[in-house]
Amino acid sequence: MRAQALISESALHHNLRLLSARAAAPLLLPVKANAYGHGLETVARLAAPWPEVWGFGVATPDEAHAVADLNLGKPVLLFGGSYPHEWPELAARGVRLTVSTLEAARTLPPGAQAHLKVNTGMHRLGAAPAEAAQAGHALAQRGQLEGLYTHFLASEEEDPARSVEQLRLFLQVAAKLPRALLHCANSGSVLRHGALAGMDLARPGLASYGVMPAPLSSGTGLRPVMTLRAPITHIHTVPAGDTVSYGGLWQAPKDSVVATVAAGYADGYPRGQTNPSVRVAGDLRPVLGRICMDQLMVDVTGLTVQPGDWVTLWGEESEPPLSEVVTASGIMEYELLTGVASRVIRLPIA
To answer: Which residues are annotated as active site (predicted)?
Structure first.
C-alpha cells in the first residue's frame, strides 16, 4: 500500500459546470500532462459523459492515442506540434491536428481535421496573422478547417490590456475566414473576464482541476479535485536528542513518537519545503527533517495511530491545502500537480 491520489468526480463536475457557465460555452478540457497530474484516463472517463465537455486537449501524439484508445465519442485536439509522418495515423483515429504554418495547411492528409493556431503574441506555436489567414483559406478549401484558436499570455493579470489586444488580432483573422469553432479562453481568461463574444469553446486547464495561481487563488468557487494521501508504514520512539532523516536537521527536544509515511519526493511531494505539515488522525502535524525519496517522517506524539492509517499530504481546505505546499516549496501549482509520479495510484471517488 503506497501513495494514492483521490480524484473527486463531484469536485471535477462542479468545476466544469462553473467554468462552462462563466464562459457561456462548452469546454475543450485539457488533459495533457496526465490531466495535470490527475490521471489522463481517469479524468477523461469521468468527464466524457458530461454535456459541458465538447472534447479533450492533449500535448503529444502519445496522449492523443491514449485518449482515442478510450473510445469516448468526444473530439480530441492535439495542441502540440507534430510531424508529417505522424499525421496519417492521427487523422485516421479522428484526432484534430494543430496547424501553425501555411505549408502544413497545404500538406495535411485527406480527411484530417485541423484547428489553425494564430500567434497573437505568445510566440510559441501558431502562424502570424497574415500567414494564418492564408493557411485558413487553404484548409477551408479542402474542408479541413474545424477550428481557429490562440493562447493568452497574461490572462491572470488584473489589467486586461494585453489580452484585449490579442483578442483583437485573433478576431481580425477570424473575420477573414469561413466560420470555424473559435476558442482562446484559458483559466485566467474565464475567471477574470467570463464569456468572450464570438467564442464557441473555452479551454480552462488548471482551473478545471480546482486550482489557480495567485492572484486568482481564492474566491473562485472552485473545488480541488485531488487529495494526495499515503499510509503510515512504521511507528517508533525517537529518544530526546536524536535526529531524524538525512543531515540530522531535526533533533528531538524530548522523547517523540515518529511515524514513517510511504511517500517522498519520487512520488511528487517536494523535497525542498520549509516546515511543511500533513494531516494525521485529524491533526496537522509537522514533517520532520528532510523528505526522502520514498518516505517522510511525521511527529505523531500523543496521537493514537498505527501502521496502515492514512496521512493527507494535501487536499480540501480542511486538509493541508495545495497552496500551503506551494508556498512551502516555492514551486508553481502546475509543477506540483504534474510532478505527481506515475507510481501514485489515481483513485476516482464520488
So the answer is: 32, 246
